Give the backbone structure.
Amino acid sequence: MRDGTKTKERIKKAALRLFVEQGVAETSIREIAKAAKVSQGAMYNHYTSKDELAWDLFSTHFSEFGLELRRIAPANPDLPTKFRAMIRYVFERFDADWVLVSYVFLARHQFLGRITRRQGNPYSAFHNVIAEAMRRGEIPRQDVEVATSLVVGGIIQMIDTAILAKRYDYPLRRFRKQGLEALSEPVADACVHLLMA
Amino acid sequence: MRDGTKTKERIKKAALRLFVEQGVAETSIREIAKAAKVSQGAMYNHYTSKDELAWDLFSTHFSEFGLELRRIAPANPDLPTKFRAMIRYVFERFDADWVLVSYVFLARHQFLGRITRRQGNPYSAFHNVIAEAMRRGEIPRQDVEVATSLVVGGIIQMIDTAILAKRYDYPLRRFRKQGLEALSEPVADACVHLLMA
Amino acid sequence: MRDGTKTKERIKKAALRLFVEQGVAETSIREIAKAAKVSQGAMYNHYTSKDELAWDLFSTHFSEFGLELRRIAPANPDLPTKFRAMIRYVFERFDADWVLVSYVFLARHQFLGRITRRQGNPYSAFHNVIAEAMRRGEIPRQDVEVATSLVVGGIIQMIDTAILAKRYDYPLRRFRKQGLEALSEPVADACVHLLMA
Amino acid sequence: MRDGTKTKERIKKAALRLFVEQGVAETSIREIAKAAKVSQGAMYNHYTSKDELAWDLFSTHFSEFGLELRRIAPANPDLPTKFRAMIRYVFERFDADWVLVSYVFLARHQFLGRITRRQGNPYSAFHNVIAEAMRRGEIPRQDVEVATSLVVGGIIQMIDTAILAKRYDYPLRRFRKQGLEALSEPVADACVHLLMA
DNA sequence: TATGAATGAGGGTTCATTCAT
DNA sequence: CATGAATGAACCCTCATTCAT
């Protein structure tokens, strides 16, 4: 209101940044309020607790990823194109707002216990795509969980490394220039290849 | 001493378990002391602060992994056997003491900024093995960082999934029976295959 | 607010009393809060730390004394009247609120290292008056520091003895009846006389 | 023992220094033990508590001063020579071991409540000398308490200023070269003069 | 006597949260 | 909806002191 930006939006933005910079537990309501230029008390007009705020931020975007990935997959004919599109989406999202993606990524262990299996879960989106490819004979039969772990793990690790590169000054400086999205095709292809074993 | 177990050992054990169960920030010194059957004050005869305790637990085992992996690699002739031996080591360690491995895995983002790049760093152990295989022509030339990310990511994700299986009642229930170690060969092979692309 | 008295005022009052009764280090924030009928947490809405509270209490009144003494001196024509007015001010202040004066007096060693030399410093107020009297030939030339020490020392010791009389049941019971102020003239005259040597 | 210095002596020395440097409350048994190169536990073979140590250090030297001053006074014929000898003793002691004297001086408010009136109390040594001089008609009749306060105050303030000069870098730098003792005669004379009023 | 690990009360401070305005 | 003082539980840590060796 003060500056045309909605209060709740400012809170989200500030919380996201601080959570990623310092960790959820290490960030106090005071800090968020201050960063969002809101009074401490006003925070509670928007979120009933710090936990609710952290969870809302996580679950919203976690599902968003899951849902979008589920939407993207059927729009592509085969495993290679599905993977490319799915991974490009994730990487583009990272390039556009790495703080948001980092949060979802880093906070996942804290919240995964609360996620219902079915709903927009990115992991299961990949799981389904792989299982279906196996059913269609696109890739050899193998343990789906292991296969999914390897694929998702590879993708996550790319993001992981990218986060480190953002936060410290780690290797993989390449996407400083190009963005992570530039890597989506080779990564997707590597994943497909991996499942051909 | 009280019961034949050294105090410091009891503290480590208790801290490790609580850190994994609840997170480092979410675990208080009081809780650790209680779980270790030590007074709060006694904690500080062994560690100068909670942070030092968390860091000691992390860095010790993190380097241990890195060092051991560096030791294992040269004892094997080619990439497939290297990978198998390295991954078997990690998975066996997980089966033997999943709490310890989970801690190192889960806390890594908190501490990675403090780790010196080269020393016993598991990531760089894989990095070196892959780079060397590339030099020797065992696998095609490609971006080493991307390659390492995919491989390490796959392995980590296996552990990640295994942790979730331990903590909640998630998929990949298979190694409930066999242990993660049973998967080391297929995972190693998939990793090799992936790099052949 | 709770009872019409401002919180910060209640904190100051309580802290002053406890600091004098027990010493700064020996007084806990908990005690002050309780005496001021405020929660522990609320203390920190008014002072960022216990040290800041102690320092604020000291420096405020220390400068106040210095400033007032500097104001009083020029309003009087010669050394005897200057001394009488200055000492009367100090003694009156003691009679009116001996706890406050005692605090400034007792805590001075703890804080003197932080005081800037010139500003409202009671010692230098006397220093200036004596130096000026020497310049004007009112008193013989002598070491100004020694002279000031003797004068200020005499005054302080009166207060010191008075504090002991308040706290224990020591000699100099006289001003139990009359107040310290009754002694300001004889003390001032003795000081003048002392400088005539 | 370890180095030929008796343990208890090392403890006293270390405690004295730390008490003056930091204050009694601000100095921990741990610190003293460390500075004295003694184990924490061993401290309690020599003193039953930190308070006993602080008190012992204070009362021993406080009485020592009082006793010595009482011994010095009668050895001199009149007030001027008495004052000179007494003040010289105090100032010499300061020059020889300013830490010790500072401790007695600074800690006096903390302990004065425990001192029995009669025994070796420096204040009362001066009190007696002045009262006697008054009886003998050496100085005019006046309030003995006030007179004593002014005299003792002047002396104490000299020491006070000297302590500040040692600890920070305050005025009265003169006795950096000569020692406080060089001032004993002028101070004594000023005191006599002051009582002549 | 000397040692230093162990104790647990208590220290200063921060926190999420409430509520009168 | 917004404010920010107030709350009091909880946090990390330090302390004087004890005691088995």
